[in-house]
Amino acid sequence: MVRTNKGRRWFALAAGALVVQLAVSPVPVLAEDFRVENRVFLDDESDPRVETTTIFLNGVVYDILSAPSEITVFDPSRGRFALLDTDRKLTTDVSAREIAGFVDRMKERAGEQENPFVAFQAKPQFEIQYDETSRELTFTSPWIIYRLVTQDAESKEIARQYREFCDWYARLNYLLNPGALLPSARLMVNAELAQREEVPREVHLTLTPKKGFPPKRIRLRSLHHLVRNVVESDRSRVNQIQQYMKMFKQVSYDEYRRREQDG
Question: How many CB atoms neighbour CB 144 within 10 A?
Answer without folding.
Answer: 21
